[in-house]
Design goal:
metal-binding, 167 residues, 4Fe-4S, Alpha-Beta Plaits, 3-stranded antiparallel β-sheet, 5 strands, elongated, alpha+beta, translocase, iron-sulfur, cell membrane
Length: 167
């Protein structure tokens, strides 16, 4: 009988199953009850998620201290984008010497989050924020811009406003 069990369940598999069972029972019987030194399960909706500092989330336009858009329409981000998801339309604004983006559109559904646009921007006017939950019900929610209802390039989108990780 002992020889039969050795051939049926090799020692390595039995050892691995015992370790897996021990960790499973540790997490299963202690989740949401007390803190465990090695807690494998993430309590995502209740506890904010932690992402790495170099995480690439959704594109965001930045503003300066006066509340003006930092972008000066150099079109470097539009030219370097491999999927051509950024569209900028230049314009002039009273009291501002530099060109002003009348329209700044970003098609998030085709973006590959390569961060070339951020690296090419010499004025630090765009960043990839830490918003990681980018699901939406409509395709229109993936088209972001500076104008229009729900097309806010300056804050997290409404689909993932609770999914911005703390820095």
């Amino acid at each position: 009988m002992n020889k039969f069990l050795r051939t049926l369940i090799p020692a390595d598999i039995a050892k691995g199953l015992s370790i897996t069972g021990k960790h499973f029972s540790q997490v299963f019987f202690t989740a949401n009850r007390r803190k465990v030194p090695l807690h494998i399960v993430s309590e995502y909706p209740e506890v904010p998620a932690k992402v790495q500092p170099r995480f690439r989330g959704r594109l965001t336009l930045l503003k300066d201290e006066q509340g003006e858009i930092k972008c000066v329409c150099c079109l470097a981000c539009e030219k370097i984008c491999p999927t051509q998801v950024i569209t900028i339309e230049k314009g002039k604004k009273e009291g501002r010497k530099m060109p002003f983006p009348v329209r700044y559109d970003f098609e998030m559904e085709r973006c590959i989050f390569c961060e070339f646009c951020v690296e090419s921007c010499g004025f630090d006017s765009i960043i990839l924020n830490h918003q990681f939950e980018l699901a939406a019900y409509n395709r229109e929610d993936f088209s972001l811009g500076t104008e229009g209802l729900g097309q806010n390039m300056f804050e997290p989108s409404h689909a993932g406003k609770f999914s911005v990780a703390d820095d």
